[in-house]
Specification:
By secondary structure, the protein is an alpha+beta fold. The chain contains two helices and four strands; from the N terminus they run E-H-E-E-E-H. The protein is 15% helix and 17% strand.
Length: 81
Amino acid sequence: MALGGIFAYSGGAPYAVASISTVPGLKLIDESSAGTAMFRDPNLYAPHNLFAIAPQLFAFGAPRCRRRHVLLPDAQGDRGW
């Protein structure tokens, strides 16, 4: 069953990206394919300068994945799950 989800990332080991890409219906979005949905702040140092605009990332997915919650680490690195 294809869920129509998205997996947004930057970088990654080729074997891991290849493995993730085998998930049916999953759309992989990396920094180079995200368009304006991902951007770098030139005032910050890489790799801590990459940001994303969640609604724009959701637009890459199927309609049913466009209204989902996003789990992101907070400033202390706590993922909250």
